[in-house]
Amino acid sequence: MPDDPRTPARRRRDTEHRLTHDVDVWVATASTDGVPSLVPLSFDWDGEALLLATSADSRTGRNLADTRSARLALGHTRDVTMIEGDVEVLEIDGLSEERTERFVDRAGFDPREEAGPFRWFRVIPHRIQAWREENEMVGRELMHDGHWSA
Fold first, then answer.
1. Is residue 57 over pLDDT 80?
2. What pTM did the predictor assign?
C-alpha cells in the first residue's frame, strides 16, 4: 500500500532537494526527424537551470543543439521528477571559471579535458512534475510555463 500523498509544497521541497543533491539525470531528446535518444548525464542545478555537458558530435549533443528541447527524469519509477525544458547551447569556454568549477566539483569530471568538442547545455525548465505512486498523479505538476505553482 502506498504512502499518503505528499502535499504540493512537500513535493516541491523534495524536488528541490533532488535537484540540489542528485548528480545524474536521464536526458531524453529527439532528432529533428523524430528519432529518440535517452542517456544519463551528470548535471548541476543553480536554482534556475540544469547545466549539462556532452560531446557536440554525439546524438544527444546534436539533438539538444538542433531542437533546443529536452525532457529529463530524476529518480526512479516510484519516485520520479520529470522536467521539460528549453535548451541554451554554450561553447565549452562560454561559462565563467566559477560556474565551470562548480560543475566539475559536482560531476566529478571536467568536460574541457575530454577528447573531441564538448559543449554546455543549459536546460531551463518550463514544466516540472513529481509523483511517487498513483495517488500522487493528481497535483503532480509543480511548475508550469516556468513558474513554480507549489
1. yes
2. 0.94
